[in-house]
Design brief:
Layout lengths: L20 H7 L16 H19 L2 H9 L2 H9 L7 H4 L6 H7 L20
Helix pairs in contact: 2-3, 2-6
């Protein structure tokens, strides 16, 4: 069994879960595990490269060629710095991603926000 962890959205609409090692062990807790590991096709280089490819393509298609090229030409260390130092995040390299439509952001999003309300039990809608 292999499962996605840090992967962009794929196989729409059937990509429901990205799973940690601990989630996988929990799902299969009734089995005797022989091995739980990162396989060659799931090593971190795949995650980083795949996400970078998706990001470049999204910027090119939805923001501009200039934004896509700015991303392509950025050294990895500069991206690391943007993550570690929030004071650097006012640059187009960071803010261009906020210009992407929600449907495009969903492909490589770090997470999702859900706001909802559970309907009241037995509540009658008097307006029809």
């Amino acid at each position: 069994m292999r499962t996605a962890f840090m992967q962009p959205l794929h196989e729409r609409p059937w990509h429901f879960f990205n799973c940690t090692r601990y989630g996988l062990e929990q799902w299969f807790r009734e089995f005797e595990a022989e091995r739980v590991r990162v396989s060659e096709n799931f090593a971190p280089n795949h995650s980083v490269s795949w996400l970078a490819s998706e990001c470049e393509q999204a910027l090119r298609a939805n923001v501009s060629d200039e934004a896509a090229e700015r991303f392509r030409e950025t050294p990895a260390g500069e991206l690391v710095d943007l993550w570690r130092d929030p004071s650097l995040r006012g640059t187009p390299l960071w803010t261009d991603f906020e210009k992407l439509p929600q449907s495009v952001q969903e492909v490589g999003a770090a997470g999702f926000e859900f706001l909802g309300r559970k309907p009241a039990v037995g509540r009658v809608n008097v307006n029809g």
